[in-house]
Amino acid sequence: MKAIVFSVEAMLSLTIAVSLLGFAALHNAQPTYAPLYEYMVAQDLLEIGLKSGENSAAIAEWAAGSDSADAFLERKYAKVLAGLGNYCLELEAKGKRIETNCGGRGKQSVSATRLFFDGKNFFELKATVYFSG
To answer: pTM here?
Structure first.
């Protein structure tokens, strides 16, 4: 009789342990929205450039080769990134590249691309946001 009680007790303990491990694994398997948020950050940073007249003019000048526009955009986007968190932004257009806040570039990244019109021509403006995963 004692052996039956101990084996039922052992079986009950084993069942509870397996259930707890199963619940822990189920909790970790739920999707995370972090990648979606990172992609939204990249999209929003491009929108800042397109919707703001001041930024839009600076992007057009920068793509045309202006060094002062380069410095202006770096400062402007550095302010925005300071409020968002530890992100590195890389803007690319017409073979030119600006990197802002890239001291500790993360290993993961998301990119977004927009068509930009500078008053004469369309060109691609690409934003890549690097972050730590």
So the answer is: 0.68
